[in-house]
Amino acid sequence: MKKESSTPTMKDVAREAGVALGTVSKVVNGLPVGDSYKTRVEDAIQKLNYQVNSYAQGLKANKTYTVAVLIPNIVDPFFSALAYHINTALLKQKYRMLLCCTGSDSTQEQEYITMAQQNKVDGIIGLTYNPKLVIEENTPFVTIDRSMGAGIPCVASDNFAGGQLAAEKLADFGCKNVAFLRIGSSLSNEPNKRKAGFENGCLSRGLHYEMKILDDSAPYEEFEKFLSEHIHNGKLSFDGIFCVTDRLAYSVIQTLQRLRQRVPEDVQVIGYDGIRLFGNMDYICSTIVQPLPEIAEMCVELLLRENMKTKPPLICLPVTYAYGGTTSENISNSDEIQQ
Amino acid sequence: MKKESSTPTMKDVAREAGVALGTVSKVVNGLPVGDSYKTRVEDAIQKLNYQVNSYAQGLKANKTYTVAVLIPNIVDPFFSALAYHINTALLKQKYRMLLCCTGSDSTQEQEYITMAQQNKVDGIIGLTYNPKLVIEENTPFVTIDRSMGAGIPCVASDNFAGGQLAAEKLADFGCKNVAFLRIGSSLSNEPNKRKAGFENGCLSRGLHYEMKILDDSAPYEEFEKFLSEHIHNGKLSFDGIFCVTDRLAYSVIQTLQRLRQRVPEDVQVIGYDGIRLFGNMDYICSTIVQPLPEIAEMCVELLLRENMKTKPPLICLPVTYAYGGTTSENISNSDEIQQ
DNA sequence: TAAATTACATGAAACGTTTCATAAAAATCA
DNA sequence: TGATTTTTATGAAACGTTTCATGTAATTTA
Predict the structure, then answer these.
(1) Which of A322, B173, B176, B306 is deepest in the core (most CB within 10 A)?
(2) Is B91 exposed, middle or buried (0-12, 13-18, 19+ CB in 10 A)?
(3) Closest residue on chain A to B77 (Cα)
């Protein structure tokens, strides 16, 4: 009577089917069981509408099938897209995502990690700005875009190649004088290589280039000052700009419009990330696209890989260039993702 | 020896502190315990770096402290912002968010619900397009923007007032002929009231208005056709447009630019939602802002409220208007969020 | 047919908590 | 001081699984 009203357990199924507890467990887990038993159990499961309590499973197995994902926030389109793909990749492996938005705050990041471990997550995927995180030895950890050394694998897009590609594209589209803009807070580690790659590309293609790198605390408006200082007689001395992120590119494009510079006629702009405003809409600018689905898959694969020894310290995945309206190229391939 | 290597349990803490199991439990849960006992237990917890296993707690309490959140996707800025605020509201109450991106697909939505119930979530918050979902009786359920009747509470922004406000603002800013644009797929239920509210506002302010409503399957380009049909001698017959979402507004603004109409000089545009591209950046258009933090808090409060009887069927929360560059108003208040 | 082997169902124990009936200690009162 | 009441620590039982040593039935072999 009382039993009937609450959610049925394996015990109830066993009683209903007239078999032992362990037999039900085997059927539920797909282990070999005699055919007649199997049908009886399956019928009972149907009849009672039984569903396993995965938290009891977790308690027994000392596993939770939950992975904590640490990202600064979920509102920035880059992060939300990343979270989406990680969630998808985890579901494929029957894992759940515990989303932790850290607000880029070290204290909160550490709190989240502790909380994550209290909840006994099976692993952590972290896009973090904190170089000194205390991770328990036995909690698998994979970072995105941040090499933390010491056996913690890092997955990233091929930032160097991406920077190089940006320079090559600007050269292809007729630029002669280009600039690289970066704001420190938006990166600390792997993405640094975007600069090196861009420099390399400029050199090999004979582009004259300039770098403007602001530190964390600087407001985006500093770039307005920098750019306006490079305007003489209403003409900007750059005809191409590579911004370290799409976010920065978006802000720079607005600045350029305020400064009466036309994009892409007067100056072409390329960003990095491959952000779209709404899922399937156009890119917000011409950009180097990160392979987010592949990055997500790789993180999950590494995280769940049993043999720690075989975990490489760094994996770089290939990037592509995509047109987003802020470069001048042939109409023929303006809608395509190429190279 | 073996014990030392694995994560410590309450038993270990009890042994270390020389107290009983129940005493440790009390200390952990903040129940009254003698001072000397308390210190001993706390010291032991510190020493062993003990952390509760919340899944064992959940098993015992038949609670998981997990709430499933069903949203179509996490990439649309409106949904991601919503997810963010729900996550925050849940954390305040010591609950976890299990994010379920349904892709607006009914089958997948149902699958997610079953999965959510397998994982024994304590409740579900759903922004769903599926009118016929099978929810188990005893799983608390709250919807956003969709009234499903039958004791399932719905939380929404005050869509009617929002529509009205949009009309009033357009009137305030000097519009005479306005239009309401809507695409069916983006709403089915509560947001319908935006139209009624807008109509009401237009009538009371003597605005001439026209409605253009496309159904689900129509491509956004249909609006381009509609708008270009209303251009005579290069002049659009509307001087104000209210779009049912910011997403649509964004697309319409791009269309208007293609049609050589200046925003806001020739035509003013107001959207609905209050989307920002990157967390703290400007709104992407002038808009009716939904109170997302309050909506999230309300959902969580209703979901966890014990007494089912006191759950109201519909709660509408107040909206505000915000400037986002696509309306012509006094400079003095252009940066403010106002009534 | 009897003995030896194989196949497979059984159910107790364990996972890490919380709860509650019990027992012990402390405080009060006569 | 001894009896009574109050306070508080104790630890067994239970939550819903999985696992594994045990027992039973079916099959094979001589």
Answers:
(1) A322
(2) middle
(3) A75
What pLDDT shows up at residue B279?
A: 66
B107 is near strand C: CB distance < 7 Å: no
Q: Do domains A66-157+293-317 and A159-291+319-338 have the same CATH topology?
A: yes
Confidence of residue B119 (pLDDT cuts 50, 70, 90): low
Euclidean distance between the first and final Cα of chain A, in Å?
Answer: 67
Domain at A10-52: CATH code:
1.10.260.40
- Cα dihedral A280, B181, B214, B320, rounded to 10, equals 70
The sign of the CA dihedral A269, B81, A101, A315 is negative
The DSSP secondary-structure symbol of A283 reads B
CA distance B279 to chain A (A): 6
Q: Which two tokens stand for residue A224?
A: 């307005």
**Cα–Cα distance between B114 and B207 in angstroms, integer?**
49
pLDDT, position B185: 55
Nearest residue by alpha-carbon distance to C1' of D15: B60
Q: A123 by DSSP, 3-state: which?
A: strand
Binning pLDDT at 50, 70 and 90, where does residue A334 land? very low
**Chain A residues in contact with B251 (beta carbon < 8 A):** 281
Check if residue A60 sits with its Cβ under 7 angstroms from strand D: yes
**CB B61 under 7 Å to nucleic chain D:** no
Give the pLDDT score at A206: 94
- For chain A, the domains span 10-52, 66-157+293-317, 159-291+319-338
Residues A49/A51/A56/A61 CA torsion (nearest 10 deg): 140
Give chain A's radius of gyration (CA, Å). Answer: 26
CA distance B327 to B339: 16
Nearest residue to A47 via CA among A2, A3, A12: A12
The CATH number corresponding to A159-291+319-338 among 3.30.470.20, 3.60.15.10, 3.40.50.2300, 2.60.120.280 equals: 3.40.50.2300
Instruction: Tell me whether the omega of the peptide bond preceding residue B318 falls within 30 degrees of 0, making it cis.
Output: no
| CATH code of the domain occupying B66-157+293-317 | 3.40.50.2300
What percent of chain A clears pLDDT 70, i.e. is strictly above it? 87
pTM recorded for the entire structure = 0.83
